[in-house]
Design a protein that fits this description.
The chain is an alpha/beta fold and about 450 residues long. It has three domains: about 25 residues, no CATH class; about 270 residues, Aldolase class I (TIM Barrel); about 100 residues, no CATH class. It has 16 helices and 13 strands. It has an eight-stranded parallel barrel, surrounded by six helices. The chain has a three-stranded mixed sheet with strand order 11-12-13. Helix 3 packs across helix 4. The C terminus is likely disordered.
């Protein structure tokens, strides 16, 4: 049971917040209220990592297969069960997919196959020993993506031929299934004369999954929810629905959550959101959001996510934004008056999830706003008392002056620098005696 200081009203806190059984997080009771969210999703969701393919679209990212294999090991250790290993049209990526299977990591490996050259792509995938075929471009709007098949296979083309597209889909699915491969197909644009006919062809051909794309990142959550529901109405429950969202408007996470609420079974995600443009729905964000906020099991070990994301940043040479949710360097960083509540009342005053849950740790940054704020009742004074020292207002002012010197041009002091200043003023001997007095 969470420790709530006697100075706080425990009944009121527990009326407002629901604590996880191991006190790793606390969320508003309203999150699960039928009045707020009548759709309470409880089914387990498959998180399919697409880092190895999407990252190839990111400028400057070209790690070796050996480095990628180590990242795949860490993904598996974190609980990820499925990955898109790469592009079937590229030898180096086929080599990587073969390496993953030979390493016996327990990962289902999907191979990305261009619909415009599907026969060669599926054969390359079979030769690489992958488990599944991911063929999302069956009804791509752009004629350019039709590749060898010709412009009539792009549904924005003036020469578009739906029957020819669906004949090739059936042949591709049959080829993949004949070799024992799970196959995912897409798309089914919400165009009346295409939508239901395409979905019917996908289902009857034996496709295992149908992927729904927001590849320009310009759908609203309401649109995504509507589209997923319409897909489910047509295909029923025997085919899994997958969602793939980009983040151009910062809605990749929200759209993916809405897809799950609407009934999506499989979620595409990418470590640190790595991809072209503004990236994709991030693995570390969707896994924590589903587990913590929606109580949807994902099988992910949340405590491994920070280390996983940091390693991916090394592999791809792309730093994590300091304020990135959960895994950024400042995700659990505090300054100013907020420090007082953390020291005196509890983590749940300002945090929805304890830092250790995600493999993080809390950072206190002593900024100019924390100095003199509330004087003897403020965060600096409280911290000094927590260190076991007795002091008066003159000594507190002296501490302020010394901390300003430490802050200098960087405008903050770390918690370690703070403690060095205080120990230098009072000496550790007094701290040990004072600690006993305050029960530390």
């Amino acid at each position: 049971m969470v420790h709530i200081p006697s100075t706080l009203n425990a009944d009121r806190i527990l009326t407002e917040l629901k604590f996880e059984k191991n006190d790793r997080w606390a969320v508003p009771v309203l999150n699960r209220s039928p009045a707020v969210d009548p759709v309470v999703t409880t089914q387990k969701v498959i998180l399919k990592d697409d880092t190895f393919r999407e990252s190839t679209n990111m400028p400057g990212a070209s790690p070796s297969n050996e480095r990628k294999l180590e990242l795949a090991r860490r993904l598996a250790a974190a609980g990820v069960k499925e990955i898109v290993g790469g592009h079937a049209g590229m030898k180096e990526q086929c080599d990587f997919m073969r390496m993953v299977k030979e390493a016996d990591l327990g990962l289902m490996v999907h191979s990305y196959v261009d619909f415009g050259d599907w026969k060669r792509g599926i054969q390359n995938s079979i030769d690489a020993g992958v488990d599944a075929i991911w063929m999302p471009g069956a009804l791509n709007p752009s004629p350019v993506f039709a590749g060898k098949l010709g412009p009539q296979f792009g549904y924005w083309s003036k020469d578009f031929d739906l029957d020819a597209v669906l004949d090739n889909v059936r042949a591709a699915v049959d080829f993949a299934k004949g070799h024992g491969k799970l196959i995912t197909v897409a798309r089914a644009p919400m165009v009346p004369e295409i939508f239901e006919k395409a979905l019917e062809a996908y289902v009857k051909s034996g496709a295992d999954r149908i992927c729904i794309f927001d590849d320009r990142g310009n759908c609203t959550p309401q649109t995504i929810g509507y589209v997923v529901k319409k897909h489910r109405e047509v295909v029923g429950n025997n085919v899994q629905l997958e969602i793939h969202c980009h983040n151009d408007f910062g809605l990749g996470l929200a759209n993916t959550i809405e897809a799950v609420r609407a009934g999506a079974d499989v979620v595409d995600c990418v470590i640190n959101g790595y991809s072209h443009r503004s990236g994709n729905c991030a693995l570390e964000q969707i896994s924590t959001a589903l587990e913590v906020l929606y109580e949807v099991p994902t099988g992910i070990d949340l405590s491994r996510l920070t280390e996983l994301c940091q390693f991916a940043a090394e592999v791809y040479g792309q730093p994590i934004y300091p304020q990135a949710p959960h895994v950024g360097a400042w995700a659990y960083s505090y300054g100013g008056v907020h420090i007082s509540a953390l020291l005196k009342e509890g983590w749940f005053v300002w945090e929805g999830m304890q830092a250790e849950t995600i493999g993080q740790h809390r950072h206190i940054a002593w900024t100019p706003t924390s100095l003199e704020r509330h004087g003897m009742a403020g965060p600096v004074a409280l911290k000094i008392r927590h260190m076991g020292y007795d002091f008066d207002e003159a000594q507190l002012q002296q501490a302020f002056d010394r901390l300003r010197q430490v802050m200098g041009s960087k405008k903050f002091a770390t918690d370690e620098e703070f403690e060095t200043v205080v120990h230098g003023m009072f000496g550790k001997a007094q701290a040990s005696m004072g600690s006993a007095a305050v029960g530390r």
